[in-house]
Amino acid sequence: MTTNDAPALLIIMSRILDYPNEEFFQSRTVIEEFYNEHISSEVIRKEVEARIVPLFNMDQKELQELYVETFDYKERTSLYLTAHELGDSRKRGAALIKLQKLICEGGFEYEGKELADYIPMLLELLAVVPAEENFVRLSRRLAFALQRLLNNLPNENPYHKAIDLLMMFVFEAPGKEELDLLENEREEADLDELPYPVMYR
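Above: the chain's sequence. Below: its structure in token form.
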């Protein structure tokens, strides 16, 4: 992690990247108090405020529509780690089991409706786990996924500006060669038309 303020930023962004329901808007004051109290760098505090306040200033329905349009059902801007790493590969099931095991090894119980590779949850996990090899590796994996997400998100999208905080102050951005290598290991979904008619025996 690139700054002492990284754990606080990870927690803030885990909230910002969750679905913007009523509770999200109600948490605005708590989040503002949190970054003012826990982020020591004035430069980072100003960047955080400038990049997340526009989200809170949007109408709830408008922000929910933007969230769905940005993240849901779009593999390139997905909020699921293994979707960025493995695409439509069958290996995703095994990768999810390994992530669940890693979460348990960190001393945590996975609870919630989301899959174990849900990026907001993993950001929160990284904020509190020790700097052990497995979690350092998880940090690199998240850096790749977030950089890939940003590369496929328009700059004018308010979520782009918010997510970029993580690459500015928390993660070391992967180089082009590393991104290309990881991209080549992914499997694309088979979107070819099925043969017709399909016969069931």
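The radius of gyration is 18 Å.
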